[in-house]
Amino acid sequence: xxxxxxxxxxxxxxxxxxxxxxxxxxxxxxxxxxxxxxxxxxxxxxxxxxxxxxxxxxxxxxxxxxxxxxxxxxxxxxxxxxxxxxxxxxxxxxxxxxxxxxxxxxxxxxxxxxxxxxxxxxxxxxxxxxxxxxxxxxxxxxxxxxxxxxxxxxxxxxxxxxxxxxxxxxxxxxxxxxxxxxxxxxxxxxxxxxxxxxxxxxxxxxxxxxxxxxxxxxxxxxxxxxxxxxxxxxxxxxxxxxxxxxxxxxxxxxxxxxxxxxxxxxxxxxxxxxxxxxxxxxxxxxxxxxxxxxxxxxxxxxxxxxxxxxxxxxxxxxxxxxxxxxxxxxxxxxxxxxxxxxxxxxxxxxxxxxxxxxxxxxxxxxxxxxxxxx
Amino acid sequence: xxxxxxxxxxxxxxxxxxxxxxxxxxxxxxxxxxxxxxxxxxxxxxxxxxxxxxxxxxxxxxxxxxxxxxxxxxxxxxxxxxxxxxxxxxxxxxxxxxxxxxxxxxxxxxxxxxxxxxxxxxxxxxxxxxxxxxxxxxxxxxxxxxxxxxxxxxxxxxxxxxxxxxxxxxxxxxxxxxxxxxxxxxxxxxxxxxxxxxxxxxxxxxxxxxxxxxxxxxxxxxxxxxxxxxxxxxxxxxxxxxxxxxxxxxxxxxxxxxxxxxxxxxxxxxxxxxxxxxxxxxxxxxxxxxxxxxxxxxxxxxxxxxxxxxxxxxxxxxxxxxxxxxxxxxxxxxxxxxxxxxxxxxxxxxxxxxxxxxxxxxxxxxxxxxxxxx
Lengths: 374, 374
What we know:
Two copies of one chain form a homodimer.
Chain A: H1 18-33, E1 54-57, E2 72-75, E3 80-83, E4 87-95, E5 101-102, E6 105-106, H2 107-120, E7 124-136, H3 141-158, E8 161-170, E9 178-188, E10 203-206, H4 212-222, H5 238-246, E11 251-256, H6 261-273, E12 275-280, H7 288-297, E13 310-314, H8 319-327, E14 336-343, E15 350-353, E16 359-361
Parallel strand pairs in A: 7-8, 12-15
Antiparallel strand pairs in A: 1-2, 4-9, 5-6, 7-9, 10-13, 10-14, 11-13, 12-14, 15-16
Helix pairs in contact in A: 1-3, 2-3
């Protein structure tokens, strides 16, 4: 493989033929499956149409092994063939974040964690991912390698597999570097989690500091200098969530706080469940640097995006135990009980009980606070 | 809903909040689920984060009904919860076609048919689709409506359901109108189809005229005037493919000819299966206008993209019967037997037996023949 070809992505890398197979074989398959090539994986370049279709053929693998990385990858097929559990969760997310590399992660890590988390909050163990790339002509191939490696690393953390993919290249000026879509399939291990289950009396817990991702992206994009560089919280949450659910904690609903932050999750819950939610400002964990950033720029940290925080509504008798379990997990060490769902009136609302006894409404962020945060 | 808001898509339509819920509720949900709203569907706007997560909760639906449009849609969840068969196919495709509206279809129809076909050629009945939209700021909302309607119409033809989605808006100049990703889950009804099954002696059948989609897009994009406007063959092929498989025809492999056209499929097959493939030029169906277009511009019709044609490798004793079944389907009326797989040498190749007895190699298209064909 001629490395020189990869100084930048060319339109011909998306046109089929030799260049496409170099791109897909050299960067994408190598990055995703390369290290496993000796242990039962089989792959061949797709010479023809710029797609990296991966078909995992699971033959006689027992159900308990289904989630392990032991399904042979057969490429050159049009779809992955997979053994599946009876009840699955299915989700999709596109990632257009700018900048694509940021402190604490990059668009690759984010695109795995985001979809892993959407499955996880439904009580579904993430099993399979698809990977759709839209790459702008001229994109640096070194950057693509880094992104694919991030995808591979982040997928390994949860044991989720990229089993099918697609790559398109569009002319310069018709995209912005790279856009990634991941769709995910998970096995429902804990059934019945739903925003519609939340009732008055449920205790609201957040798994860690809020606003880190939004503040990290915004400060980096706008070139705002901080004493301490803010790091995104971008992380895959399945392990932490599974620990809670495996313990038998009675959970009504879980949601990962992404665009719109904690405020969006809580407001959506009031609408879906017909409750008010009352949270105490001094209980909501916010890091010092994010607090400083928000004071400097007049933002509400509760409206800034997270990418590695989950919000839980749990039945009150389980709240202490839930908190203990979360705090014992590295991703949940700053978890806290922040409030309660209450019987709602005609218009449901989120009430923020201020530190000095002054209550106010915590609303959605408005307008285009920060496009391309994820 | 204030219709005036929708003259064009704004960044704030992707930022969460009221505008996002107007976009998703007003255009996307309405277009996808609107007509069914009275018959058991439940939907609410997602006010928070610009994602239109759709969760289809299947409770006590018997397995035979699983593929019917009878699963309740519960929105505001992070993933669709679905009953699934034991063995599924999973695939993804991003669509960046330009122009987005073309004779015979649009990017919406294409994004459903493309993924439906990738499942179909694996013997999988398409069940569920995800829908990821990346929209450029300023995109006309009337165009978005048209596209969503096309998606809905095309999905209905196969009975596949859009069960989860995601919408992002990026600033003007950072995308080109609209990009769509669809991922699909299908139930494997006919097991064992694989390009690796093709053996010498297999008969190669194509389901109709080749090159229509490529010629339609290219002539429209470049403003080439033809006597007869060429129409894309864009179509969902599950019904036709299922008819063949249900009859018990012994099929080694099926592939939909997309980017790279018939030539790419046949060349990939030679690589995967280690055979040569010998096809007779006068047996390959090409329409008069596409022939004229190719002669005018020096293209090889066999290298132009199709979006509604399948190529079959069938065991020879089933070839006639397979052809009859295909020809009895409206999408297969121009089907033909075009050649044979033969024992291959060291380097596998596709041989095109010319009309005047002159044989030549049919190679992949090279370079960037036509970016953004799909």
